[in-house]
Protein 1
Amino acid sequence: MSCGELLELLVYDLTMSTATISSIGDIVRTHGTGRPQHTCLIEGTRELSWAEMYENSQRVANGFAAAGVQAEDRVALLDMNGIPHFEICFGAALINAVSVDVNWRLAPPEVEYIVNNAEAKVLVVGAEFVSILDAIAPNLTHTKLILVVGGHGQYEDWNTWVARQSLGDPRVPSAPNDVAFQLYSSGTTGLPKGVMLSNANFLAIGPMIEEIWEITPDSMNLAAMPLFHIGGGGWAMAGMYQGCTTVIFRVLDPVALVNLIEERRITHAFLVPAVLAFMNMIPESATKDFSSLRVMAYGASPISEDVLTKSVALLKCKFWQAYGLTETTGAVINLPPEDHALDSPNKHRLRSCGVPGPGVEIRIHDNDNNRDCETGEVGEIWIRTGQNMLGYWKRPDETAKAIDADGWFKSGDAGYVDADGYVYIHDRVKDMIVSGGENVYPAEVENVLMSHPGIADVAVIGIPHEKWGETALAVVVKAAGVDVTEDEIIEFSRERLARFKCPTQVQWIDVLPRNPSGKVLKKDLREPYWAGRERRVN
């Protein structure tokens, strides 16, 4: 760090306070004026200062407004991790519009549904996804402006469009409960739901950013996970809240990741267990200098004790496990570094997801008897915090099912709390599968498979998978007189769904087990695959 940069940081620490930030737009306003020359973003060889990010955000905001985007309108992005994500996010925030990041792993029909459901006025698409754009563009119902990063014969290049927009912060007011982000989760009933996260939801994470993850204005924060996930975009925004530098990984490569930590002197990162496992397998990891790392947060799926102990020994920094959901704006329960110590007398706590974070209340609820569970008794994990979403976009019935009148969000995870206040995940109340950190709802997959003429009935369940934690298995009743193979069913699903949602195996059955009301007994189907395991999630 140069003397000038050190002086800027000292002055900044004395004069700037995150208390001045009351919305997502205020993040770029505060740091764009408070530390204009400090590096905001690094993507490959390209770097942007906070002043440049603020200027680009103003141009984007004014361009969106000229295209008819008004307060609380949605703007969508379909692209891998990159600088445009943040330009769109902050540009939208300056006019109090809402960012919608679309999972680029989705199939064209899924992308089309989300863009239309969000009623997105603008759609920005990365060059790699032009084929999806071409397939869905004629069917977009609300989109008035389409831009392509890198250009397209029919649509203007994103960077060219940004450069020709006018400067000046429009400063459209943004209230605490105005929606800032809309992230889509797979649907329990077959259709994705737009999770509405407000300015206040995100700012409620402030104490965790400072007290737990210890991110400071001089941190070098790694944004390696997909930004369309709360674990990717939320983690990146946590660093930006503090005004630090964010290093973007466009597409995660574990070998390149190992090198980047050393080269860029990364101080903070959030990774999923599968990535940590890959890092431990890379021979070069043993010779790399990871001394810059201060905090490694991980989550999105359970981690094995073997991978965890090897990662702690390799990286030699503070480890925090984070448990949360899109609906809770990310982490609400955290396992602290002292419980990761290899010689800890409380090694059993590695099986837990930790203790509630600042401002987070947890209760374990017995839904069958409408009562709170005793210590050690398994029930559904309910969460109350300022991080809880506003609700599901245009799904009031689903919102009412998820959040009760007193503000308790029903997680869908079954677990218990021990005498020391540590939360343990035991199973899922819902049928959700977590494969490689991605949520998969069987109902969505089943709805697609039932349209296959060779399938008379089907149930999708999660089974253990060594690499991805869990994977989807389709239990299929064949239609009479139709010959269908496992490969045909898997390929059929891949044409209509994101690959991570598709079954990797098919099991044939004569009739699905059902209870008297007709509900498939999925626990019976899952039992042979999970027998002998302490918990029924992987």
Protein 2
Amino acid sequence: MTDNWTRMLATVALLSGIFNAQSAITLAAQMDWGAVKGFYVALENPAGRPPVLAETKLVLGVADGANWRWVNVTPKWKWDTVYTIRMEIRPDEAELFLDGVSQGVAKGSFIPFDGDLVGAQGTGFTGGPGDYAATQTKLTFKDFRGTSQTADISAPNDSNVYRPQAPVAIKRKGAAPIIEIEAGVRFSKSPSLYEASPFVDRYGQYRHSDWPGKVKTEADIIAGGREEARVHATWPAPKGYDKYGGRTDTGWKEKGTGFFRVAQKNGYWFLITPEGNPCFYTGLCTVEPGVGERTPVNERLYLFDELPPRTGPSAGAWARNLWGDFSGIEYVSYYTWNVARKYGESWPEKSAASVRERLSKWGFTGLAKWVSGVPNVPYLPYLAHWDVPNLADHPDVFDPAVRKVFADSLKQQMGDGIKDPWIVGWSVGNEYPQIIKTAEIRSILTMPGKVPAKRALIDHVVHTTYNGSTEDAGKAWGLGPTGEDALYEGHPDAPAADIEKMRRYYQENYYAFMRDTVQQNDPNHLYLGCWPVPGWWENDEDWRITAAYCDVMGFDRYAATFTEPYLDKLIKEGNKPILCGEFAFPPYYDGMRGFGRYSTIYSKDDADAARYYRTWMKDAAANPYCVGVCYFQYRDQAITGRGPGRGEVLVIDENFAFGLVDVADRPKWDLVTAVRESNLAARVDRFGHAGIELKSK
């Protein structure tokens, strides 16, 4: 086997970001997950570990507007065999076939989604390369009118051995609903990592391909700094703002309280800065001067062409025991090494100065989540509860002892921040982990009767659903007529409606406790909630509950548009100002640079990401409820993954090109130019939408 052929197989198998480096492969999908519409057919593997062919499931999901239903099987797959997978949707059922043999039927109605049909699409987070690579060979669909079409599925391009199979996206808006899908897929064995190593060059880039602007020498990094200085000299710092980002030329001045707050003007919400000026906030996540996202190196040193010296300016590129793990895992940051090459011994100070200048020149009001090292700039600190014991997945806020530990932890983390005018607002936890899950409630119901949460959840439903009758509750829960103590000690098999009522009650108390504790410690700052992701939850009630227990509804959203109809409805119902804490469209670069392809939304390149950014900022500035948005993130992630974890795998967790700057600390000018223009425009246009005239532009 030639070296090129070896590398071709290894790269297609290990760096595609579509298939074996992901936990799922979507063969065909036309759906809106959050709205519970449409269908998908996928290959799925357990999350968090490399895929194994013997564990690969074939899944059909269909939605009826209220629930998703699945056919889920694990066939005995064979290597180098082309399989034909077919889905048929009928008025009252959907059926899944493998090579003409039925694999199961999902009974129930179907609500189609009027959107794109996608195929050959990787989803989920990376768990590292598995024992197989999968290639989609075919995608054919037929709608209810009998019209059929075959999608153009490309094979991995042998003319460029580092280019993986491209995804498919067919515009179907307004077309007749699809009722039949046929897809083909083939599995081949993945080669050993050793066959194509090293993958990462001495600058942290993918070693086996080339592209315009790739760093070849340290002189290229230095030249990037000179180019940045030249461009910045042509970009004047924005004027007409106070030091917190509030407009000073609107004719509208609120009382300055020394802290950020919110106010409404002409039906539009605004942040009000500590000096009393209205502000549309533009923030940037994960800013820590000179410190890039590190990648774990244990058990996989062979992946890297060269590692930074442990002494001298590059010593700061090394770290140990990150992510709360104290098992001795070592991490390295090529970004830090490149910054040290750029600035020498003084890199910490010069990198911090560079960050401050970039924020101003690029039109950002301040920072967002996951930041440090840039004082006297507005930011959004994140509070955690890692040191608080969990009952199932969350602390038992019905237990007075746990409440005290939780409250003490939050107070300690807030510290002197309660006096800090640069803090926009507090949040506790982040995204899906803060959602109380249905499975969590069922787990609690199996616990001993003395558990406070179990008693509180049972009491709530007994009194609100069964009028206080433990006998009626016992009958409904499969325990028979029984008293209160027997309910507590039993393992109730409660109906779904009762479980959902318990889940919401737990979530309401959990969110209320966090809000009340933060506000008792600090009545001056805003409380922003816990950043739910629309659709990445149990149901829409999770948005409503979050909105009820915060001052500003903080949320994250990775999508092509700022909102969509179902989200607009929830925002209007909540009637609270909203702040987006994370959004992004990470470029994939056709797989040429070693980055993964983000499952929810990705762009082709920096110019494509710029197109998305412009649209997002225009829509956000026009939304009456939105007080600001924050981009994720400052720099690209390591192509071998940010961790945590260890082992002989190529990618450990996320490895996406989210950044405005690359691993060599060079701005991505196609994107950054659009970011600057869009940020500055949004911070002006917001006032125009609200009918507020600015004295200067």
